[in-house]
Design brief:
Layout lengths: L1 H29 L6 H19 L3 H27 L3 H21 L16 E4 L2 E4 H23 L1 H11 L1 H6 L4 H23 L8 H17 L4 H21 L5 H15 L16
Antiparallel strand pairs: 1-2
């Protein structure tokens, strides 16, 4: 029983890291807390479902199209709305939350309610780990989580755009003096965040169903991970994902799955009471921000 809690706890932890990756990246680079993030996640899920069921595209084409579409939505959101209010934190939160609310409730208005909206798994079957079997979709979550984290580490250190990301995260005004376009980088950060959000959706949603309410849950999970780990800290996000993921898994096994969300809320309250900046939320340690 303990081995099962640990194994599924790792899967749950990687899922949380995937969900929080885009939110954390966007905030770490642009300083924008994108509260429409949960809506983007649901949009990617419903969008992929419609491309599969209504348009008839294969999964291998529907997923890239939806990832690109969500990335463009992130960029458009910055260019049309956020560029006018950037730096005004309250306005950014209200604007992004309002847009997310509109997207989610629009799906509810269109009648996307019920348990019939599901995405197909990438592959059928399972692998045996010890005395337990793990289905291939959960294996895909582990592979994608590790792959994306590694890719982003190399991208932000060995590519010109990645180094520009780090420059803006480190000191925006100095980066401007060196010729780095702050608005272009912030647009790319919102776009990357949207794309990562869509990737998380298409790999996690096949083990459940797509629902409007999932948007609010995903936003809360991303916030919990980033607040506990420290907003903008990549290493803090990874540590917080494993702390919360394991805690949720053990709570679900011994108390019931309906207590899992309580873990997030308690973790937020606890960290805000003890260390409001999060586990590694030292904003001056700039190498940790992306």
């Amino acid at each position: 029983m303990l081995w099962g809690a640990l194994l599924y706890g790792v899967v749950n932890s990687v899922s949380l890291a995937l969900v929080a990756l885009g939110f954390n990246l966007t905030f770490g680079i642009s300083g924008i807390a994108n509260f429409s993030y949960g809506a983007m996640y649901v949009l990617a899920g419903y969008g992929t479902w419609m491309l599969l069921q209504r348009v008839g595209l294969p999964l291998g084409i529907a997923i890239p199209l939806m990832v690109i579409g969500t990335s463009l939505l992130g960029a458009l959101l910055y260019k049309v709305v956020l560029v006018r209010i950037r730096g005004m934190v309250i306005s950014e939160v209200i604007a992004t939350f309002g847009i997310g609310l509109a997207i989610l409730e629009f799906f509810r208005y269109l009648g996307f309610i019920g348990f019939q909206y599901t995405l197909p798994v990438f592959a059928e079957g399972s692998v045996q780990i010890g005395n337990l079997f793990l289905d291939l979709q959960r294996v895909s979550i582990l592979v994608l989580g590790g792959g994306l984290t590694t890719f982003l580490w190399f991208f932000t250190r060995y590519t010109r755009t990645g180094r520009a990301f780090r420059g803006i995260a480190q000191d925006e005004y100095t980066a401007l003096c060196l010729g780095i376009d702050s608005d272009r980088i912030a647009t790319l950060a919102m776009s990357f965040g949207g794309g990562l959000c869509a990737l998380a959706a298409v790999v996690i949603l096949p083990i459940g169903t797509i629902s409007v309410d999932a948007g609010y849950d995903v936003l809360l999970e991303a916030l919990a991970v980033c607040i506990v780990g420290g907003l903008g800290s990549a290493l803090g996000m990874v540590i917080a994902s494993f702390v919360l993921g394991m805690a949720q898994s053990i709570t679900s096994m011994y108390l019931g799955s309906h207590w899992m969300m309580i873990v997030n809320l308690l973790a937020i309250l606890l960290i805000l009471g003890i260390k409001p900046s999060g586990l590694l939320g030292k904003q001056k340690e700039l190498e940790e921000r992306i």
